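Entry 14. Ran structure prediction on the chain below.
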Amino acid sequence: MKSTESTPVSERRVSEILKQFNFHSVIRSARIGRGRGKGITNTHRILEDLDIVNQTLAADSEIDYFSS
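Output, structure tokens:
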């Protein structure tokens, strides 16, 4: 695993990123209710090959949070 410097992002930003990936069909997101008073769990699953996803994200100039 290579080491890179990174800056932390807020939970809201992570949520926005996941919503964007879901919109572009890179991941599938599901919201699962755990019953009354037990909250909601969000699950996310990558639909594409990881190598293809990494190459595409690295090539996209608008996505700077994946640059190394």
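The chain is about 35% helix and 20% strand. Will compare against last week's run tomorrow.
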